[in-house]
Amino acid sequence: EVQLVQSAAEVKSPGEPLTISCKASGYTFGSYWIGWVRQMPGKGLEWMGIIYPGDSDTRYSPSFQDRVTISADRSVNTAYLQWDSLQASDTAMYYCARHSGGFDSWGQGTLVTVSS
Amino acid sequence: SYELTQPPSMSVSPGQTATITCSGDFLPKHYCYWYQQKSGQAPVLVISKDSVRPSGIPERFSGSKSGTIATLVITDVQADDEADYYCQSPDRSATYPGIFGPGTKVTVL
């Protein structure tokens, strides 16, 4: 069974760095793209970017290109989403999802709250 | 920037049919995917590659595409189908896998 388990909710202050994670199991991690999706409170889904763990090929939505870094570690079957300096506007639910003919498996989401 | 367009909301009675459209200039060139998101839950893929129903998705859900418009149809709507529905498709550069539409809130009366 394919499973994506995301790290716990985070509460941070503006300007702080943050990395959240997405641990995959039940399939060959390096053989499928994994994407990240943002959902701000009460809003729709926004595609942020995607990585192919097999060779670390990474693509970003222009809206997020300069704001986040996506990475993956095949040794622990985990993908990451990183911010160097959070802003209040980063407050949102973040989902990871495996791409196989669409995003066919999703993590449970990580709620990130940025507040002073 | 490229956008997909969906109606913001619709209401449907149980047993009736819900038809949700998604329009985009590059839909003729790329697949469209559909997701269902119930309140407080992660999205679920309900239609892949324009019209393929993933394992476990009821036959009541079907998808099609014609030109710049993709359509998700839910027949015999049930109370459990109340959710937000999003289409997704690559943009002009075929950046994989692409942007989401704004979502359609389906309310079951």
Structural account:
The complex is a heterodimer of chains A (about 120) and B (about 110). Chain A is about 0% helix and about 55% strand. Chain A is built from no helices and eleven strands. In chain A, the strands form two sheets. In chain A, strands 2, 4, 5, 6, 9, 10 and 11 form a seven-stranded mixed beta sheet that branches. A four-stranded antiparallel beta sheet of chain A has the order 1-3-8-7, with no helix packed on it. In chain A, strand 9 and strand 10 form a beta hairpin. Chain A is globular, with a radius of gyration of 13 Å. Chain B starts with 8 loop residues before the first strand and ends with a strand. The interface of A and B includes residues 37, 101 and 106 of A.
What portion of the residues of chain A fall into strands of 2 or more residues?
over 45%
What's the total helix number of chain A? 0
Our Rg estimate of chain A from Cα atoms comes to: 13 Å
Write down the oligomeric state. heterodimer
Report the span from N to C terminus of chain A.
Answer: 40 Å
Helical proportion of chain A? under 10%
Distance N to C terminus of chain B: 36 Å
Order of helices and strands of chain A: EEEEEEEEEEE
Which of globular, elongated, flat, extended, rod-shaped describes the shape of chain A?
globular
For the biggest sheet of chain A, the summary is: 7 strands, mixed
